[in-house]
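Hi team,

Filling in the usual template for the complex we talked about on Friday. All components are listed, including any nucleic acid strands or ligand strings, so the model treats them as one assembly.

SUBMITTER: L.P.
PURPOSE: interface mapping
COMPONENTS: two
RESIDUES: 485
SEQUENCES:
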Amino acid sequence: MAATKTLRSPLDVTLSVWKALFLREAVNRISRERTAWVWLLAEPMIHIVFITFIFSFVRVRVVGGIDTAVWIIVGFLVFFMFRRPAQQGMTAVGANQALFSYRQVKPVDAVLVRVGLEGFLMLVVAIIVLIGAGLLGYAVVPADPLSVLAAVFGVWLIGLSFALAASVANELIPELGWLITQSLIPLYFASGIIFPITQIPQPYRDWLMINPLVHGLEVARLGFAPNYQALPETSIAYVYAYALAAIFFGLTLQIRFATRLAAR
Amino acid sequence: MIIVDDVYKRYQTKHGAGRWVLRGVSLTIPTKVNVGLVGRNGAGKSTLLGLIGGIDQPSKGRIERRCHVSWPMGRAGGLPGVLTGRQNAKFVCRIHGHEDALPDRLAFIQDFAELGEAFDEPIYTYSSGMKSRLQFALSLAFDFDVYIADESISAGDIAFQKKAKAAFDKLADHATLIMVSHGVGLLKQFCTAGIWLADGKAHWFDKLDDALKAYEESLPA
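RESULT (copied from the run log):
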């Protein structure tokens, strides 16, 4: 075979690993089970339809001045932009354990690529759901697309930070990983996707506002409908400050435990 | 040159840390010298090869590779069953930075592994022989300075073994082999130097015969 003796730069190696991992994970994610791609789309839609149904049952037609359905759709799509990367990225190290036998592949690569792939897939799913909702006559054309994108990207970054830290915990202390997985369930209720945070009395509301996802969701809703009465404390800067600090923490863990994660 | 500096290794089990498999192994393996690794079952031969090949990390100590080192040839990891042989081969080519030469490498791998149409079928349909042929072909598709050969040379049927041996002959001309085998004939054919592993320590011998002698003398009569 042709000689390729030049040493590649670390960046070259990493980029080629990311590309190879991305393609591999994509094939795996979509063809793992026969209906894997259906679930990809169906999961957020089931949540949306179910919660919308409950709201219409109790005759709540307007939340914060906008259509309840739009409020729920945007909330769920943005929330899933956190949850999917977080959940899938968390198990990326264990799932790719066998690949660390290639020295080029580091545990952190597996997490980053998976979170990237999930974000990409969720973006596609979100566009499909929004088009569908638009065809059904809901007002789902964002008035301020840039602030929607800023919110979505910020929430995805929070998912990334979660995955970076949780994947380390999940590998080294599986019991802690289980606990972290369980903590996603209360987060589902406390992020303002199935009931509005505005209805929560003080001081508990301030406590819920510590959760950066609440801020991200509110910014996204504001981007869709400028007349939406968002929580007054909402701050996109908080989302990004939180994400940057948490990513820094997650990467630190990844570097500190890199060899322990790859070792058997 | 590969430098193994005071390496310790034990495996983590569900019930805490296991026994020390390697206890302070220090070696300097020069290039251009083919080395045979001998020792009893459980002496840590595969563990040491795995560490040198970088598929696992030492618990303590350090391994420095100043050249391109292959993974242990029979243990090309991460061949998930749902992906096809071709998809897996593509992945390995890509992470080694051979995006441009992808078709050539794939053709070589398909040809050498003699998988035919099975190359495009999921790995879980492969027999163990087919799987090891694919792993063997994968490691031959790249130019390493040092090849780490475990028992993989005895994979496959007789025809494939012949082919594998011929490939080894060709490799031995331009690359270094580090080899584990219980077949003394095979070691003698390829290797000049030897490493004897016992009690978690490694002993280097410039001549393979001396390593084999030390190994045989250590065995209970």
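MY TAKE: The interface with chain A takes residues 11-12, 53-57, 59, 68, 71, 75-80, 82-83, 87, 90-92, 94-99, 101, 104-105, 108, 141-143 of chain B (CB under 8 Å). Helices of chain B lie at 45-52, 85-95, 102-113, 128-140, 158-174, 184-190, 208-218.

Thanks, L.
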